[in-house]
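Reader question, answered in our methods column.
A reader sent in the components of a multi-part assembly and asked whether the whole thing could be modeled at once rather than chain by chain. We filled in our standard form and ran it. Here is what they sent:
COMPLEX SIZE: two components
ENTRIES:
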Amino acid sequence: MTALKSAPETAFDADTSPKHPDHLPLRRVLSRTFFLRPTFFLGLAVVVMFAVYVLLGSYTVTIPDFFTIVINHLTGGEKIPGASFIVMEHKLPRAVVGTMIGVAFGLAGALFQTMLRNPLASPDIIGISYGASAAAVTAIVIFGASGAVVSGAALGGALGVAAIIYAISRGGSGAGGGSRGNAAGNRLILAGVGIAAALHAVVNFLMTRADIRTAADALIWLNGSLNSATWDRAGVLAVSLLVLVPAVIALAGPLRILELGDDAAAGLGIRVNAARLGLVLTAVALAAVATAAAGPVAFVAFLAGPISRRIVRKPSLPASALTGALIVLLADFFASNIAPVILDGTVLPVGVITGALGAPFLLWLLVTSNRKEA
Amino acid sequence: MAILNAKDLTLQYEQRKVVEGLSTEIPEGKVTMIVGANACGKSTLLRGLSRLLKPAGGAVTLDGKDIHTRPARELARTLGLLPQHPTAPDGITVRDLVGRGRYPHQGFFRSWSVADDAAVQRALEATDTFGLAERSIDELSGGQRQRVWIAMALAQETDVLLLDEPTTYLDLAHQVEVLDLVTDLNRSRGTTVAIVLHDLNLAARYADHVIAMKGGRIVAEGPAIDVVTEELVFNVFGLESRVVPDPISGTPLIVPIGRHHASPVSTNELEIAS
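And here is the structure of the entire assembly that came back:
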């Protein structure tokens, strides 16, 4: 036995300092700034896209005019006829709401995908967006609701469906005999897909019963659209994000440990069920407020994570949030400025673009990632 | 130091009792091996000891305090666990993974520190994975990967470390390597180690203390030389065997008899003996 205790003995001796005392922290700092760089550029891209969105397009505003408009608006100064209205009441709130729902969808998707260790597990796939849709369409078609009532119904629908999915995935699990931590996660995805299918049928049923004009309203909402973006709505979103983003920051640490599997996480001092419940609530709330504000903009939550991962070369919540914002701004800019040129003046809802571009992009991601692994 | 104690412990999944009325103590500063046939409740016992499973009856205490009433993070600074199937996030580097073992030592406002770097460094060196530190986990072999997971558990720097079948899927050389490593840890730091192990011979070789289980109960415990006998092997595993001294360590070595390869001399001896 004496032969066993040679070299590593000193390694555990607390008095022996590591061989390279200041070499390690330096490397950490370097690697941090290195990884920060792509995220920084992603942030820059969002700012540039925001500027392009507000300044260019079917109505162009110069940069000096833009600042004059904003400053005069805030100080109550003189307005530029036409331009002031378009920027302050149309373009700017639309860009702000678009950015915020992008951030919310991006975070919600990345939280679910990381927590359940499955890229399919974004809120738009596992039925949460469908819950919002079904509730909103019910409100529009049956109760003739519009505006804030529809948003409220969507919020309630998303939270309600999330609660049902969570209950189903927990029910009858009891940790089972097997110690595999992933079982609960897979059950949650399957329950969500099942609920999504059922709610899809509900939405279709309601649409066939509705008269043509109500159905058109409902359809625009279902596609996801920034048409109803106002400062009021931006304010509600901003307050929601002020609560939810700090929650995400607080949960990011436990999330990193949950990635190692439930058992390993428990061994490292995570209260697995409490942490997972907190993450589910936060992610659902993010998806719900974004859906309530603009409808279920297809694939943003689903794609933000995988795309940001390609850009910064590691899973990252901030990068995912920024990518979500970038996707929404780009897609809506295309939908409202470029699509009309191609389609004889038809302005599309943003969800049509994210849906049309999202699906093939997803397939491309799947094909290339499979090839890499093979 | 820390004493892990189970008293009148009953563990169950749903309505199925797996461990019932079990009392034992993991001896401090020693290597304990928990052995038994498949489905005897040995992994379940380890889950109960490590807070993964809440007891249906009885209690598990660490230094006299119930492990379920202590804050999870504080407990994780004293009691570490390496589960059977941990999952590595895609593309994670060895250093990053080992660093996550420091989680219980970090607070909400106290993030990564020099002490954490030093602990990771020690864990990497002890497991001989320093050279792999910047590699991605996906590129490593099974044996290397298991060393990295052990490094993560070491970085946690707990007084008690529980390991659930740490040698599964490893070839014999890597099994020995992992158990040598755990012994190093025990000898140099005095860490109390409890391991669920399938291989009875390796368990007998490396254990200071053996806990043999059958049907959710402990049938024998003590030093391997006292516990691992032909009667026990038959009782616990239903296997006819000869137990001889291990030519290397002198610990009990189980030689199974089986139905096909016994020479007439040895079977006769066995019949006379029984």
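What stands out: Chain B touches chain A through 56 residues (CB under 8 Å). Chain B has ten helices and twelve strands.
Send us your own complexes using the same form.
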